[in-house]
Amino acid sequence: MVDDSIKVYLKNEILESQEAINFVKSPEAGAIIFFGGTTRNNFESKIVTKLSYEAHHKLALKTIIKIAQTAKKNFADESVDKKIHKIFISHRLGVVPVSEESIIIALSSTHREEGWQAAMFILEEIKKKAEIWKNEIYEDGSSSWKENENSNVLIR
Which of 35, 36, 41, 80 gets the most CB atoms within 10 Å of its CB? Predict the structure, then answer.
């Protein structure tokens, strides 16, 4: 927990969408934006059986919190009653089977426009900057590490 309006988690358990929605609800908000990123069963003609995530826990949390704080600041304009009220972000670590969520992003906003924009910003920034690494595991037993801009932080 960062403050009363932002919750960020990295966890090995199944992510709970209702927890996210319940947290972001606000009487001042006219929109709740929800995104669940799930493991799909294919990538470039290969059959994906699961994903596996690793993270530098402390750095990844710090990065994601900063992204959430930036979104709250950048997508608000009090002069025209635009505000991001609450943000919930949860990223799963370890093995994530097909059809299960790897990431949940939920937020509440005064209007839908700033909410959609903020959610897209959060997702893209996490994919680019968070110290989280994904290994895609295929049916034939092979796998492929997917890297973000901070991939050099992981030392193998």
Answer: 35
